[in-house]
Automatic annotation (TrEMBL):
Keywords: Membrane, Mitochondrion, Mitochondrion outer membrane, Protein transport, Receptor, Translocation, Transmembrane, Transmembrane helix, Transport
Residue segments, region Disordered: 1-48
UniProt similarity note: Belongs to the Tom22 family.
Originating organism: Macrostomum lignano
Gene Ontology terms: cellular component: mitochondrial outer membrane
Protein name as annotated: Mitochondrial import receptor subunit TOM22 homolog
Length: 147
């Protein structure tokens, strides 16, 4: 079932007669049997034609293809879109699980290491204050040099 279009039988209407623009080809030396319009009139006639909208062009293109081809293309585009959405949702869920698991598992460890580091720093400061400058030499640093 064609959608109101006549079947294409290979016959084409003759091309419009445009004036030849210069040149010394074989066509220009033959007598012309049709009355040709000046180029300005031809251009004015083309400007008077109504322009097709994008929607009309897409509709006309859609009518060129049989229904099974249009259905297959529509299904392919729709399926690709659905696959993209599903992949995005799965990636979002995976990122959320990885982030929350990392926070739950690693955050206590990080906090504990920081607490131990602060305690060690406080003990070191107390030791330095109690022992005075001699603690520096005991730690491997030379005391004042004797000359």
């Amino acid at each position: 079932v064609m959608s109101g279009l006549a079947p294409f039988d290979g016959d084409r209407p003759p091309p419009p007669a445009y004036p030849l623009v210069g040149g010394s080809g074989a066509m220009s030396s033959e007598p012309q049997q049709q009355q040709q319009k000046p180029i300005e009139d031809v251009l004015d006639d083309e400007d008077e034609l109504e322009d097709e909208t994008v929607a009309e062009r897409i509709l006309a293109l859609a009518e060129m293809f049989p229904k099974p081809v249009r259905s297959a293309a529509s299904g392919l585009v729709s399926g690709s879109f659905q696959l993209t959405l599903w992949s995005f949702r799965q990636a979002s869920n995976l990122a959320w699980v990885a982030t929350t698991t990392g926070l739950i598992a690693l955050l206590p460890l990080i906090i504990e290491r920081e607490r131990v580091g602060v305690e060690e720093a406080e003990l070191e400061n107390e030791r330095k204050m109690m022992l005075g400058p001699a603690s520096a030499s005991a730690a491997g640093q030379p005391a004042f040099a004797h000359a």
